[in-house]
């Protein structure tokens, strides 16, 4: 298997979570994790033996250094992460229970990354040697500067022959705060992408269309067809479908669609969910690993869904599972204690 190199651009975040199933500040304690959509993908790729670099800006203070330290110890190249005065972006998590859903509260306005000058990124230099640029819809939602930087990154990647990977990740709260035009901006990025991690809802939002059909399968088919028609560079669409039986009991399945057909994985049952945050990022990293392996589309989607499934068992934003652990999960590995 050749080992492609990935450049991931986005904000590195600090997650502050209420412990256990407590409400936020129900008791005066918070649990800290490092995360952020693109950073999660970078770590997921590095854990699978892929080459991953992070392009970002962090606060020039101990919190920023802690974020960089977390990336480095997971074998992510952080040399292209700049430092600037200001603050780290935060988000607060309250984990749901019984009939109460989980809740995320963002505190990212005015962060060092959000305020970074889009003209300050020398994309031709930053992307040199990369095979892929990975972006998500979270980054341009942060603000006008981040949106301009993300679009410039995608367009430069096209110009210099770096393939673009895009995860829809629409964040309504963030777009609403600055009255940004989410669909238009995401269209500009998706127009540069070769592989997109999007579902039918993302396509409806980005294209301003509705694909309501007789069933969910028909709706997806129509959405994929419209996306391939609208974006000539797009070669693959990968998506998961989640069914929630309860806060702690989910099912996920996956599909990998091309212009000539699709490959699917049946639902994977996930009782006893520990932490679902970052599962989509684990899926993206897993699909990329599977595609790079040369073992075919079925292996790629199976591996991606298994990676996402295992992430539900790991606290924090990042998937820390190895190739061996994910392949064991694909095969329905035994659950006895390993000694």
Topology of helices and strands:
Layout: E1 5-9, E2 13-17, E3 31-35, H1 37-47, E4 51-59, H2 62-73, E5 81-84, E6 89-94, E7 103-107, H3 123-126, E8 132-136, H4 138-141, H5 144-160, E9 163-167, H6 172-178, H7 182-190, E10 195-197, H8 200-207, H9 216-230, E11 236-246, E12 249-258, E13 262-271, H10 279-292, H11 297-311, H12 323-330
Parallel strand pairs: 1-4, 1-8, 2-6, 4-5, 8-9, 9-10, 10-11
Antiparallel strand pairs: 2-3, 6-7, 11-12, 12-13
Low-confidence stretches: none
Tell me the helix content: 25-40%
Mean pLDDT: 94
Tally of helical runs: 12
State which percent range the strand residues make up. Answer: 15-25%
Extended strand count: 13
Structure in words:
By secondary structure, this protein is α/β, with parallel strands linked by helices. Helix content is 37%, strand content 24%. The protein has helices spanning 37-47, 62-73, 123-126, 138-141, 144-160, 172-178, 182-190, 200-207, 216-230, 279-292, 297-311, 323-330; strands at residues 5-9, 13-17, 31-35, 51-59, 81-84, 89-94, 103-107, 132-136, 163-167, 195-197, 236-246, 249-258, 262-271. It has a 9-stranded mixed sheet, sandwiched between helices. A 4-stranded mixed sheet has the order 3-2-6-7. A hairpin with a 3-residue loop joins strand 12 (249-258) and strand 13. The radius of gyration is 19 Å and the shape is globular. The relative contact order is 0.13. The model has no long low-confidence stretch (mean pLDDT 94).
């Amino acid at each position: 298997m050749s080992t492609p190199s990935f450049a991931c651009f986005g904000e590195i975040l600090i997650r502050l979570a209420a412990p256990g199933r407590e409400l936020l500040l129900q008791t005066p304690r918070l649990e800290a994790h490092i995360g952020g959509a693109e950073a999660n993908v970078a770590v997921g790729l590095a854990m699978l033996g892929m080459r991953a670099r992070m392009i970002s800006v962090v606060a020039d203070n101990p919190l920023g250094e802690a974020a960089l330290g977390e990336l480095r110890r997971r074998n992510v190249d952080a040399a292209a992460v700049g430092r600037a005065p200001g603050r780290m972006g935060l988000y607060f998590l309250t984990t749901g229970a019984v009939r109460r859903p989980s809740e995320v509260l963002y505190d990212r306005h005015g962060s060092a990354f959000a305020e970074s000058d889009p003209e300050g990124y020398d994309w031709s230099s930053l992307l040199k040697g990369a095979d892929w640029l990975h972006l998500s819809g979270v980054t341009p939602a942060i603000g006008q500067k981040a949106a301009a930087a993300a679009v410039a990154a995608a367009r430069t990647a096209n110009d210099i022959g770096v393939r673009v990977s895009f995860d829809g990740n629409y964040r309504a709260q963030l777009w609403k705060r600055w009255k940004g035009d989410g669909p238009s901006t995401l269209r500009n990025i998706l127009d540069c992408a070769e592989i997109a991690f999007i579902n039918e809802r993302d396509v409806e939002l980005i294209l301003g269309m509705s694909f309501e059909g007789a069933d969910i399968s028909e709706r997806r088919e129509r959405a994929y067809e419209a996306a391939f028609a609208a974006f000539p560079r797009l070669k693959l669409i990968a998506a998961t479908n989640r069914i929630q039986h309860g806060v702690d009991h989910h099912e996920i399945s996956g599909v990998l669609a091309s212009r000539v057909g699709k490959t699917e994985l049946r639902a994977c049952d996930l009782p006893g969910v520990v932490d679902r945050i970052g599962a989509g990022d684990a899926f993206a990293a897993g699909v990329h690993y599977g595609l790079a392996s040369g073992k075919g589309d079925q292996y790629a989607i199976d591996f991606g869904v298994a990676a996402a499934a295992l992430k539900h068992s790991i606290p924090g934003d990042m998937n820390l599972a190895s190739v061996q652990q994910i392949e064991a999960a694909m095969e329905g590995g035994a659950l006895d204690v390993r000694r």
